[in-house]
Design goal:
- The chain is an alpha/beta fold.
- The protein has 13 helices and 10 strands.
- The protein has helices at residues 14-24, 45-54, 60-69, 74-81, 95-107, 110-121, 150-154, 178-186, 197-205, 210-216, 239-250, 266-273, 319-327, and strands at 6-12, 32-38, 126-129, 136-141, 146-148, 165-171, 189-192, 220-224, 256-260, 290-294.
- Strand 4 and strand 5 form a beta hairpin.
- Helix 1 (14-24) packs across helix 13 (319-327), helix 3 packs antiparallel against helix 4 (74-81) and helix 3 (60-69) packs parallel to helix 6 (110-121).
- It is globular, with a radius of gyration of 18 Å.
- The protein starts with 5 loop residues before the first strand and ends with a helix.
- Residues 306-310 have low confidence and may be disordered.
C-alpha cells in the first residue's frame, strides 16, 4: 500500500459486506479510511418485522456493517450480532437490530442512531445509508413477472428459479445521500460485492445518484465475484454474467475483478446442489479490466445461529485474504 491516507468505499449489505469490512478494518492503523455505504432495501427476517412495526429504515445491514468495523472488543461485537432463539416476540431478533430501533426512537433519526452505535462500538470507519427514503426493491423477470420486496425476490417458492432478472429498480425513486456521493467521490477504491447480486449489491446502484457518482469518481472500481450462484436470482450465471450486470447498472466496467481460484469442498457443493446452486464458472479470461485470481476461500464452514429463519451461505470468502488483495491495489 502506498504512503498517505487512502479512502475505500465499500458498497453493499449483508454478510458479503461484513466479510470485506472485517478484513479492511485492520488496515485503518496503516492509513486506510473506510466508509460502508449500505442498502436500505432489506425487508426480511428480524429487520423486516421491525421495519413493518416501527416504520424505520431497515437496520439489519447497518448492524452487520457496524459489527464488522467494531473495535477489537469481541464481546461488544458478539452482543451486537446476538440473535435471540427463544422468547415470545423476541425469538429471531438480533440485539443490534433492537438497539438501533430503540436509539432511533430516542435520537429521532436512523442516521443519529447509526452514529451513536458507531461510537459505542468504537468502529474503525463510517457507516452510512445509501438513501434515507423508505423504498421497496422491485424486480422484473424475463417472463414479465414483477416482484416487489427484497425478501419476496429472494423467496423462490412458487416460481421458476431459473428465470433471470431483466430489470431492477426501487419504488418510489430515491436520491443517494450526500454522504454516500461524497464518499464515492473521495474514494481511491470503490468495492462492490460479494453478496447477492441484485438484493445486496445492485440494490444500492439503482438509487439515483449512485451510478453517476461511481462513473464520475477517479477511484478504481473493484468487483468481488460470488462463490456460488443463487437460485431465483443468478441461476446459471458465470463470472462474465456477474460483471456484465455490474457494468449494465453502473454504466462503468470494473477496473479489477477478484475471482476465487480455490476449489470448494465436495461436501459443500453437494449441499448447495440440493438448493439448485452451483460454483460460479470463471469465463472472463479476456476481460478488458484486470482479473485477480487467488484463493479467497475461507476454510471454515458457516454455522447458522439458532433462531435465524433465513437461508444463509454455507461457505464464504476469507476476510483477510480479500483485504490483502484490495489494499495492494491502493
Amino acid at each position: 500500500m502506498n504512503n498517505g491516507t487512502k479512502n475505500i468505499a465499500v458498497i453493499g449489505g449483508g454478510t458479503g459486506t461484513y466479510t470485506v469490512l472485517s478484513g479492511l478494518r485492520k488496515y485503518v492503523k496503516d492509513g486506510v479510511r473506510l466508509t460502508a455505504i449500505v442498502t436500505v432495501a432489506d425487508d426480511g427476517g428480524s429487520t423486516g418485522r421491525l421495519r413493518d412495526e416501527f416504520g424505520y429504515l431497515p437496520v439489519g445491514d447497518f448492524r452487520m456493517a457496524l459489527a464488522a468495523l467494531a473495535d477489537d472488543n469481541d464481546i461488544l461485537r458478539r452482543l451486537f450480532l446476538y440473535r435471540f432463539d427463544r422468547g415470545n416476540g423476541l425469538s429471531g431478533h438480533n440485539f443490534g437490530n433492537l438497539f438501533l430501533v430503540a436509539m432511533t426512537d430516542i435520537l429521532g433519526s436512523e442516521e443519529k442512531a447509526i452514529e451513536f452505535a458507531g461510537s459505542v462500538l468504537r468502529i474503525k470507519g463510517k457507516v452510512i445509508p445509501v438513501t434515507t427514503k423508505d423504498v421497496t426493491l422491485m424486480a422484473q423477470f424475463e417472463n414479465g413477472t414483477v416482484i416487489a420486496g427484497e425478501d419476496p425476490i429472494d423467496e423462490v417458492a412458487g416460481r421458476d428459479g431459473k428465470l433471470r432478472i431483466t430489470r431492477l429498480w426501487i419504488d418510489p425513486s430515491a436520491k443517494a445521500t450526500k454522504e454516500a456521493e461524497r464518499a464515492i467521490k473521495e474514494a481511491d477504491l470503490i468495492v462492490l460485492g460479494p453478496g447477492d447480486l441484485y438484493t445486496s449489491t445492485l440494490a444500492n446502484i439503482v438509487v439515483d445518484g449512485m451510478p453517476q457518482a461511481i462513473r464520475a469518481s477517479q477511484g478504481k472500481l473493484i468487483y468481488i465475484t460470488n462463490l456460488m450462484s443463487k437460485f431465483g436470482q443468478t441461476h446459471g450465471f458465470t463470472t462474465g454474467d456477474f460483471v456484465r450486470e455490474i457494468e449494465k447498472y453502473v454504466g462503468r466496467a470494473p477496473d479489477y475483478v477478484l475471482v476465487n481460484s480455490a476449489s470448494l469442498p465436495d461436501s459443500i457443493i453437494a449441499r448447495y446442489k440440493e438448493q439448485h446452486e452451483f460454483p460460479i464458472v470463471d469465463d472472463i479470461g479476456t476481460f478488458k479490466g484486470g482479473v485477480i485470481r487467488e484463493n479467497f476461500l475461507s476454510p471454515e464452514e458457516i454455522k447458522k445461529p439458532s433462531g435465524d429463519v433465513l437461508q444463509r451461505s454455507l461457505i464464504r470468502h476469507d476476510s483477510d485474504k480479500l483485504a490483502k488483495a484490495l489494499t495492494a491495489l491502493l
